[in-house]
Amino acid sequence: MKYIILLLIPFLSFSQQDVPEEYWIDDSEFEKAINTNKAFGDDETKPVVVEFWAKFNEVNCFAEWNQLEDVIYYRVDIAQAPNAKKKYKVRMAPTIIIFKNGIKETIFKAGLDLVLPADVIEIQEAINEINNASKF
Fold first, then answer.
1. What are the tens digits of pLDDT across the range 66-107?
2. Are the CB atoms for 69 and 127 separated by under 8 Å?
């Protein structure tokens, strides 16, 4: 039994490691990442989803990030981005904030149980609403 548990440990922590390095940002890159204005209007920009993540709660990370469509995704380790954490009043991890042209549009926060109450479908619906609103 002890050996089975040891074999399963790498698989249990896989969800936080499946985000490639280029999707991780810190305070030095944060403002540039969320400000995606294009020269020819809103219709050419995609919303930016930022997941505020914490090592102590990696088991509850947003593992379905790669299923999101028509969006740019970043993950932020709250230990590496204290200024962004403070500016956007992130108190729990995970917290997901959707930005459009640098403006906070929607926020999903973990509860006291440290579990994100929204699933990928609800987050995608919020993204679709933001994309549709910018068409007018």
1. 999 999 999 999 999 999 999 999 999 999 999 999 999 999
2. yes
Spatial separation of the C-alpha atoms in residues 38 and 46, rounded to whole Å = 10
71: left (phi over 0), alpha (psi -120 to 50) or beta: beta
Please give the Cα distance from 117 to 94 (Å, whole number).
10
Record the tokens describing residue 36, joined without a space.
Answer: 């995606």
What's the per-residue H, E or C state across 19-63? Answer: CCHHHEECHHHHHHHHCCCCCCCHHHCCCEEEEEECHHHHHHCCC
- Sorted by where each begins, the domain ranges of the chain are 2-133
| Fold adopted by 2-133 | Glutaredoxin (3.40.30)
